[in-house]
Amino acid sequence: MIRTLAFFLCLISTSAHSESMKLAVTTSFHNSGLSDVLLPALLEETGLEVQLLVVGTGQALRLGRAGDVDAILVHSRADEDTFVAEGFAPYRREIMYNDFVFIGPRSDPAGITKAAGIPEVLSHIFTSQALFVSRGDDSGTHKKERELWQLAALDTEAFGAWYKAVGSGMGASLNIASALNAYILTDRASWLNFGNKSDLKLLFSGDAELFNQYAYLPINPDQHPHVNADASDILEKWLTSARAANLINAYKINGEALFVFNASK
Predict the structure, then answer these.
(1) What's the CATH code of the domain at 256?
(2) Is residue 115 part of a domain?
(3) pLDDT for 160-170, tens place per residue?
(4) Does residue 113 belong to any structural domain of this protein?
(5) What is the tens place of the pLDDT at every residue in 8-36?
(6) DSSP string, 10-52
(7) How many CB atoms lie within 10 A of CB 165?
């Protein structure tokens, strides 16, 4: 009886000193597997429990505007700047980066491996009308894809049946591309952690236009007084710490790093 009471009191004590918060993150970040490394270490070191809402960047920003989360971690700079300018976050804090890559059939029917840059990559796909899977979900990856088509002076609204806008997260979209043996734009981390590669291969990468920065935006308590600003601050300080930097830079799949920490103090 005494042992049971002591255990119960211990549970009460632990609960009283723990913090929790809601963080909206992109499907590409979650699919990388990095959250499975970071969140247990965060909980152990700070006592902060983070509930992830895994959505596209567009939906993460909408959740932030509504005050349904305490912070967001996304990768669409122009939208982040607008979010801050509108007062929904006091600032954006860069945390880490990787890059986008073009995946496609090993045989590369559009010949994108020979392309000199992004406009040529997309022109080859457009001209050959090779199957291309678009996330089509207003995510950060989808926004980047549309930006790249515009860079190539091509209008996705006029595309034919070869262009498949699937309205899905990164993992589901990669599965569809695998099933169709189609081209797709994805972030490197999601690709490296993707198990159903089938006949797909990384065909084009390294262009400066494919840079992919992730940023942390705490929701402004002046807009939404109910948000847990204290917990959001704890998470931000930990994500920009030396401990987080080591975990992020050391996270690899098959010997290849998925992210580079670049948070400034």
Answers:
(1) 3.40.190.10
(2) yes
(3) 999 999 999 99
(4) yes
(5) 333 333 333 468 999 999 988 998 999 99
(6) HHHHHHHH-EEEEEEEEHHHHHTTTHHHHHHHHHHHH-EEEEE
(7) 16
